[in-house]
Amino acid sequence: QAQQAKFLSDVENELEELAVTIAQAKKMVELIKGAATKEREKVEKLFGEASEVLATFQKEVAGFIEDGERSMLGEAEADLRWKEERRAKLAQCKQNLENVPSTDTIYFLQEFQALKVAMEENLSPALSFQNELNFTKCTQAVSAMKDVLSAACKNQWHHLQGKGIDGLSFQETEEGLCSPGEVPSNPTHSVILWISSCFPPHLHVSFLPHTVAFIIDLDSDTADKFIQLFGTKGAKRVLCPIPYPESPTRFINCEQVLGVNLMNRGNYYWEVEIIDGWVSIGVIAEDFDPRESYNRGRLGRNEKSCCLQWNGQNYVAWFGGFESVIQQPFFHTIGVFLEYSEKALTFYGVKDSKMTCLQQLKVSHFAKGQFDPFQNKINHQFASLFLCKLKPAFFLESVDAHLQIGPLKKDCVSVLKRR
């Protein structure tokens, strides 16, 4: 009886636990259904808006072709009529002259004079066509937009499936087919770098700036043994070395780690959260030797890298062993904007989607009577950095220094566009 009672008690407990877990499972089912319904509605709305954008663009392009055809066709048809009328008039005068009897000298002279006057009439003004059939460029522009849209769909589908994006990705319109605010945040805080570049000059497609996106992960094969990685987005400096496997790209004298993807053209933007400690954020040449000594291997202490350092009291910009102290308050979020076309690297403090420029590294002439050793170093050697393929780089200087990559703040990329 005791065993039976115990068994019944166990069954009762099991039933109660099942009741609780069933209730939780029901909530989860409802939660999933509700989330899926909301997501479906949002997606349908966005697809509808995208269709409206495409329809509007199609209407504008068709109208552009019609306007160009109408303005140029009117001029061309008028020129054609003038030439036809002139030809008919000259032919008639010539015929009249040929029909004059050879004995009628006066009549012959009259017809000859009429033909001469007709020949000396002012010619038709030359066709202007200053726009050189501008509407014929529409095919090129629409084809470029189709390629952009196709690449965006393909790469975003790969992103949804959890696949990495290793090459050219999607483009962004002024408001963004996939603007920073619309990039779905995920548990791993994917880094998004927005690389802006222009269409070839002959296209002049101002309504479709070319923007390529990369998803950047921290490269575990480059992490120093005193850096612990959290997934591919977080890094922390620790006291106990981590037994990473041997790698020719691993830093051995500096507590540094690089991003996986390369940057070699266009404009790039990414953000880093400084969670704790002294952290340096910057870029480094792909061919930099990770076995360099501590003094030469640190970010910004050589001509192959540059960075913004937080040393617990100030921000400091570093390049080629030269430094520039920045008098600004602490920002948890640092935005990095790399412009290959301008050969410039700008660091921003980001807070509440507002951006404060902390330092821009770019060749710049001195004002008369001024001299800055740091800017002088920039002027002489910084541009050569852009001859290299670059990688995002991070240096965790103090024990327990901790950083997290991304996610992007909603409006920062649009703010950069306005600048």
Number of strands: 15
Spans where pLDDT lies below 50 across 5 or more residues: 164-213
Order of helices and strands: HHHEEEEEEEHEEEEEEHEEH
**Approximately how much beta-strand content do the residues carry?**
15-25%
In the CATH hierarchy, the architecture of the largest domain is Sandwich
Keywords: Metal-binding, Zinc, Zinc-finger
Domain B30.2/SPRY: 195-412
Pfam families: SPRY, TRIM_CC
Organism: Stercorarius parasiticus (Parasitic jaeger)
Provide a concise account of the structure shown.
The chain is α+β, with helices and mostly antiparallel strands and 419 residues long. It has six helices and 15 strands.
Describe the protein's architecture and organization.
The protein has 419 residues and is an alpha+beta fold. Helix content is 37%, strand content 22%. It has helices at residues 2-98, 105-120, 138-160, 294-297, 373-382, 412-418, and strands at residues 191-197, 210-216, 227-230, 234-237, 256-258, 267-276, 279-285, 305-310, 315-319, 322-326, 333-339, 344-351, 354-361, 390-396, 402-405. A 7-stranded antiparallel β-sheet has the order 3-4-15-6-11-12-13. The protein has a 6-stranded antiparallel β-sheet with strand order 5-14-7-8-9-10, covered by helices on one side. Helix 1 (2-98) runs antiparallel to helix 2 (105-120). Residues 164-213 have low confidence and may be disordered.
